[in-house]
């Protein structure tokens, strides 16, 4: 005998979720308002310096010296752009920054991905030891002077690209994030590839890396921005101006403006700040243009590599 199933009483909460009718509590509404206000304030504090920088870059020197430039350019001026962009040394240092960033990011990603993939395997002999070595460097360093002697004297990397890109080629934070991501990678895919005849290197390059675009894009952004903004290593190990990155060029402008302020007065320093603003804007422009292309990978890459299931 077949009995008909009695109609079940609909789940009110489910209906509300499906129809979009969800009654929010007073506390949740207050939280949303406070959260929105806090985010707006954070965005305002974050964006104000950049907007002010853009305004000064396109303002005339007189308005900058008078302190009348805040968020909107006053006395539209692009002559400073022509002056800075006509300087051959600026473009030489700019090209050096591109070179250092590309080479340094490639080296850093090669070391980080291979190291993290090896550490993600629980059957690796000495795995705890190698993880400990990496973590140890997060808390202890050799010091500035021993580091300088090692790179400049023993390795002979003074006035060399390697003095800029090699010492910081491995970020332990990035290593641990990528290691965690590889630990969550489905083992079935690797086992199936091994059955099909792929070696460990084949699995890594043909299976693992193509399926890790999110975390790879995120780590690439971290390394590229870090190397692009770096200036201390070049300042420490380079004497030849033709080898400087653009950050050193910018640092020298700031130092010149500070010297002008002490020697001549605030007006000269405010005029020099126009050149600084233009140089800063041209310096950060590539990162601003590059970021939107990998933004969709950014959040997912960090979350995938930071949560171990």
Automatic annotation (TrEMBL):
Q: Where are the transmembrane segments?
A: 30-51, 98-117, 129-149, 161-182, 203-228, 275-294
Q: Which InterPro entries match?
A: MetI-like, MetI-like_sf
Asked if the record carries the keyword Transport, the reply is: yes
Keyword Transmembrane helix applies: yes
- CDD domains attached here? TM_PBP2
> Which ranges carry the ABC transmembrane type-1 domain?
94-293
Keywords, sorted A to Z: Cell membrane, Membrane, Transmembrane, Transmembrane helix, Transport
Q: State any GO BP term from the record.
A: transmembrane transport
Where found?
Cell membrane
Alphabetical list of SUPFAM superfamilies matching this protein:
MetI-like
What is a single cellular component term in the Gene Ontology annotation? plasma membrane
Q: How does it sit in the membrane?
A: Multi-pass membrane protein
Q: Name one Pfam family in it.
A: BPD_transp_1
Q: Can you tell which superkingdom this protein's organism belongs to?
A: Bacteria
As for family, the record states: Belongs to the binding-protein-dependent transport system permease family.
Q: What is the protein named?
A: Sugar ABC transporter permease
């Amino acid at each position: 005998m077949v009995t008909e199933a009695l109609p079940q009483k609909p789940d009110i909460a489910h209906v509300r979720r499906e129809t979009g009718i969800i009654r929010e509590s007073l506390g949740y509404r207050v939280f949303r308002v406070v959260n929105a206000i806090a985010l707006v304030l954070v965005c305002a504090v974050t964006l104000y310096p950049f907007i002010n920088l853009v305004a000064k870059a396109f303002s005339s020197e007189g308005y900058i010296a008078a302190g009348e430039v805040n968020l909107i350019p006053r006395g539209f001026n692009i002559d400073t752009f022509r002056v800075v962009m006509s300087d051959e040394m600026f473009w030489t240092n700019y090209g050096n920054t591109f070179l250092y960033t590309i080479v340094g990011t490639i080296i850093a990603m090669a070391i980080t991905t291979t190291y993290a993939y090896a550490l993600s395997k629980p059957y690796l002999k000495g795995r705890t030891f190698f993880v400990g070595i990496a973590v140890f460097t997060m808390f202890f360093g050799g010091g500035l002077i021993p580091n300088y002697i090692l790179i400049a004297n023993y390795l002979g990397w003074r006035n060399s690209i390697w003095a800029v890109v090699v010492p910081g080629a491995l970020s332990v934070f990035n290593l641990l994030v990528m290691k965690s991501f590889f630990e969550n990678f489905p083992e079935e895919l690797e086992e199936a590839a091994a059955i099909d005849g792929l070696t460990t290197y084949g699995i890594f390059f043909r299976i693992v890396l193509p399926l890790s675009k999110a975390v790879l894009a995120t780590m690439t952004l971290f390394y590229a921005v870090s190397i692009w903004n770096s200036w201390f290593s070049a300042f420490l190990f380079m004497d030849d101006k033709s080898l400087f990155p653009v950050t050193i060029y910018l640092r020298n402008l700031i130092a010149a403006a500070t010297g002008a302020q002490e020697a001549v007065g605030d007006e000269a320093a405010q005029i020099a700040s126009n050149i600084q603003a233009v140089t800063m804007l041209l310096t950060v422009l590539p990162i601003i243009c590059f970021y939107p292309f990998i933004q969709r990978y950014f959040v997912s890459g960090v979350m995938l590599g930071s949560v171990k299931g």
